[in-house]
From TrEMBL:
Keywords in alphabetical order: Metal-binding, Zinc
Keyword Transport in annotation: no
Name of this chain's protein: carbonic anhydrase
Its EC number(s): 4.2.1.1
Cofactor note: Binds 1 zinc ion per subunit.
GO molecular function: carbonate dehydratase activity; zinc ion binding
Annotated InterPro entries: Carbonic_anhydrase, Carbonic_anhydrase_sf
Gene3D superfamilies: Carbonic anhydrase (3.40.1050.10)
Top-level taxon of origin: Bacteria
Coiled-coil ranges from the UniProt annotation: none
Catalytic activity: hydrogencarbonate + H(+) = CO2 + H2O
SUPFAM superfamilies, sorted: beta-carbonic anhydrase, cab (SSF53056)
Organism this protein belongs to: Paenibacillus mucilaginosus 3016
Amino acid sequence: MSAIGAIMEHNRAFVQEKRYTAYETTKFPDKKLVILTCMDTRLLELLPQAMGLRNGDAKVIKNAGAVVSHPFGSIMRSILLAIYELKAEEVCVIGHHECGMANLESANVLESAKRYGIPEENIRTLTYAGIDLDGWLTGFKKIEESVANSVNMIRSHPLFPATVPVHGLVIHPSTGQLDLVVDGLEVLAKEQSAEALI
């Protein structure tokens, strides 16, 4: 049976037996938190457990590497909407050790695309159109630097409120240990102290 077949079969029983009632909540995050994290399969249940989160506690946005790569892309839009429309008051960017984006090279991704049947012509067309495939498909060297960069991109966004803390963390995908890379409350306190001196 295919994955989708098994999913649909499970879903019919899930709905018929009303198992969904254990997960009822609202669209507003109870802990007023929005999290950007990686799509890594190891984090699906580990991350919420390691943070003490239950269904309904946080808005969770996932992508490869927990990276904000463009200030006006869908990740940043989702973070802003979580704050302005869904009552989130803190942001956490959570990367992880052993991430597939670490040391990722665009050439490897493009070779894999060709093996899947993507014609070389498509790749050339994107390059001629000005798409920086090397930049877009290349990962990072150090997860801590990548997390700090995403935190900075969020905080620097012209529509991001200066009063909202943005924390940066790294989780170990085996143990769930969280390491704080950027303490958003500490950053806000320093900024407020600097403003008081002016």
